[in-house]
User: Fold this.
Amino acid sequence: MTVSRLASAEEAIHHVHTGDTVMVGGFGLVGAPLTLLEALVAHSDATDLTIISNNIGEPGKGLGMLLRQGRIRRGISSYFTSNPEAVAAVNAGEIEATLLPQGTFAEAIRAGGAGISGFFTPVGASTACRTSSSARSAPTWRSCSPHAQIRWATCGTAARPATSTR
Amino acid sequence: MATAARVTIAEASEVVAVGGLDPESVMTPHLYIDELVVQA
Assistant:
């Protein structure tokens, strides 16, 4: 852990590299770090990004700028409909989408940060996905496919999207 | 979010001197923050 210091957005954004997973705060554009996102768009060539954020911005705004540049490979979110372009990109197979219920999404981030390897959610319990073979046989969150991860998170089994180092 | 990340960059709308914030209103303590950027 380093001591925090004031940096320019252009300096700070160089922590982001191609293939990285980037968590972005905000609910739509509200509370989103728009200065940092503009720096990421203008001063970084990091691509193939996995974005963990509530939404993928709005058309051409916030994360929507990054989407238009084709630099998002996968979005882990609660809903995409604030940005119809993100919905279209998913339907066209241009980006992968992992959509989690809002509370499951927030708790997965909190649990990852707290070093909790899984948690119970009743969402999906007693439904068809509860009995899916991939959900039952997957040994760990990390070893299963993104699709199976969604099932895990929604089948009352476990959820953990991020590897914690703290 | 900050606890689940390897590197955390915070974007603040305003930076104030030490003591300028009520400790009770701090949601993310500084030790989780690697880079602090002021909003343009």
